Amino acid sequence: GQDPENQLRQLREWCVHSGHEIIDEYVEHESGSKGTAGRKEFARLFQDASQRRFDMVLVWSLDRFSREGMARTVGHLQRLDRAGVAFHSFTEEMLSTENELVRDILIAVMASLAKQEAVKISQRTKAGLERAKASGKRLGRPPVPAAIIAKIQRLHEADPAMSERQLAKEAGVGKSTVRKILQRLKENA
Length: 189
Prior knowledge:
Strand content: under 5%
Number of helices: 9
Largest sheet: 2 strands, parallel
Order of helices and strands: HHHEHHEHHHH
Distance between the termini: 67 Å
Helix content: 55-70%
Structural class: mainly alpha
Mean pLDDT: 86
Strand order of the largest sheet: 1-2
């Protein structure tokens, strides 16, 4: 719902003063956290980049380009780089990949940060799982009720030739559940 015209005017002026020809404008009104799937203009930008319609993307700021987190943002920048398209942030001058040395350093640093972010997410997830276990919460699928196990055992003993699929249908569970139960029964026999 925001009017991007003030930003667009400044971006256009920057292009004129820098000697860049404006090929197209990709004005997105969706959240930057939606990625290419939820942002038509963002997806179109990458389609045009892959067709080499332009050699640089100028954005108001990195958060206007992507709010998907470090890893995905780095992925988007690498995708532009593979297409031979430079990236320049108007409000964050240091975020410019026009210079090869700066581009390589920037992508390396951002990739390293993305890796660290992934490690932190993993650590937080593991800590949350440990906290849940410590508080007595059961993780994973709920156990198969004893009545279902008994039913599968009765059906199997009554007709050992009955297939796992038939047993699953009769017991109202998945075939893999039947397979696990039969394996446990076999091991305990």
